[in-house]
Amino acid sequence: MLLILASKSPRRAQILELLGVEFRMEPPCCDENATGIPMEKIPKELAKRKAFEISAKFQNDFVLGSDTLVFCENESLGKPKNGEEAFEMLKKLRNKTHKVISGVALCKNNTLLFAGESQTEVRFRDYPDSEILDYISTMEYADKAGAYGAQGRGARFIESINGCFYNVMGLPIALTMEALGKIK
Q: Residue 100 sits in a domain of what CATH number?
């Protein structure tokens, strides 16, 4: 069975490789406007959109879509556009607990077979602005919701994680295995 991952994320690819799943990547370019959707439902909705878009192009293949967002104080923190945005996000997360929510969806023949979401709470420690600036200088924040990578140098900010670590990386393992269990 060959799976299509509707993503360009190297972290999601790394997780699927860890699971021993054969796949290829097809990055979607779907509309990510989430106006009118409750904030905590956005990742699942975007995962479905991504899976449907790629499934429409590759009708006979199973397509896995995923999306991850960081939520702090009722605000969604997506991918920062630049270092200034990354700095502000990391200041906001400092010394607080935030939620990381990932949505996962599986489609075939443009039909939804599975959709779910996973939540993980992440507590950041207190750290000085100079540490944020040092981290930003690595450019690791780029292309990461909340401006940090838990699997990389961004781990320096984390005090504790309650839930799936791989969810924070962008693809929750238990939920992904549940989705893949729908493949027959």
A: 3.90.950.10
Residues 89/30, Cβ–Cβ less than 8 Å: no
Domains in the chain, number: 1
Instruction: Provide DSSP, 71-123.
Output: EETTEEE---SSHHHHHHHHHHHTTSEEEEEEEEEEEETTEEEEEEEEEEEEE
167, 98 in Cβ contact below 8 A? Answer: no
Number of neighbours of residue 37 by Cβ within 10 angstroms? 13
83 with 64: CB under 8 angstroms? no
> CA 157: distance to chain centroid?
18
Range of the domain at 76: 3-180
Question: Which tokens go with 64?
Answer: 């896995």
Encode pLDDT of 58-115 as tens digits.
989 999 999 999 999 989 998 999 999 999 999 999 999 999 999 999 999 999 999 9
Catalytic center residues? 67
Model pTM? Answer: 0.92
